# Entry
Amino acid sequence: MKFYTGILIFFLSSLVICQPSVNSSATIKVKLIKSLKIEKVKGNLNFGEVILNGAGQNLLKNPADGIEFLILGHPEKEAVVSYQPALLYPDNQNTANTLLFLPAVFETGNNINFTTPQNVKNGTAVHLENDDGTGVTFIWVGGKINVKANQPEGDYKGIFTISVAY
# Structure
């Protein structure tokens, strides 16, 4: 009986050892793209000195006279542009007397001049046009500030932030 048990164990173990291996595979892919950045080319959002006259005033800054930004990234990709209105605070930091800057944002593709601008709403994508292997789009920012009739005089300052993401 021991002999048959030994042969049976040998036979079963050889089946386990002789079992063919099975494999499966998967394709691995990755597409590396250029990083995204935005840089100021020129301009400012300075509305200058305004004389208060006791009536409300709408101060306007044409985007062509505002700030020009350059978005650089991967050619033929879309970049989402995000921005918000900005509060301007008087030098005395009295939060009851703030002003609100309402941005007007436009893009001109890879044209460095403010020609055939297209409106860019917050959260929308712009196309990065291929310019010698780099994706390029110019962004222009102007806007308006509504000054109340009883707005206190002073120097008002705020920060406008614009960001881009794939």
About this structure: Residues 34-165 form a domain with the Immunoglobulin-like fold (CATH 2.60.40). DSSP finds one helix and twelve strands in the chain. The first strand starts at residue 37 and ends at 43. The longest helix spans residues 2-18.
